[in-house]
Design a protein that fits this description.
Elements (H helix, E strand, L loop, with lengths): L2 E2 L2 E2 L7 H8 L26 H16 L6 H14 L2 H9 L13
């Protein structure tokens, strides 16, 4: 640590990093990178059968074996994208194959 006039920098309340900053040449700050805009996230809940949950887990495992890290939310969102890309007839056929279940929370005893 450098000393001046018998006093250390630390005793004068200046630490070494401040001294280094003061000695460093002044440069212009780098231009700010444009921030990536992220869509607002919405939390939602829905009802599904245990077999649907198992299917989601199977898809996650399959993706992991292929080297793609994913989660339940991403699997569901990918499924929505796949449904959106279908023509109307294929969409209706896919929806008709889904078992209809009662929605909402089960009654508490």
């Amino acid at each position: 640590m450098a000393k001046r006039a018998g006093m250390s920098l630390r005793s004068r309340g200046i630490n070494a990093s401040e001294e280094e900053k003061a000695a460093a040449p002044k440069t212009k700050p780098a231009p700010a990178k444009p921030k990536a805009t992220q869509s607002k996230v919405i939390r939602d809940s829905f009802t599904m059968l245990p077999s649907d949950q198992e299917s989601i887990d199977d898809v996650i495992e399959k993706a992991m074996r292929a080297g793609a890290r994913t989660n339940k939310s991403e699997v569901i969102r990918a499924g929505i994208q796949a449904l959106k890309s279908m023509n109307q007839g294929d969409l209706v056929n896919a929806l008709n194959k889904v078992e209809r279940i009662k929605t909402g929370r089960p009654k508490t005893k």
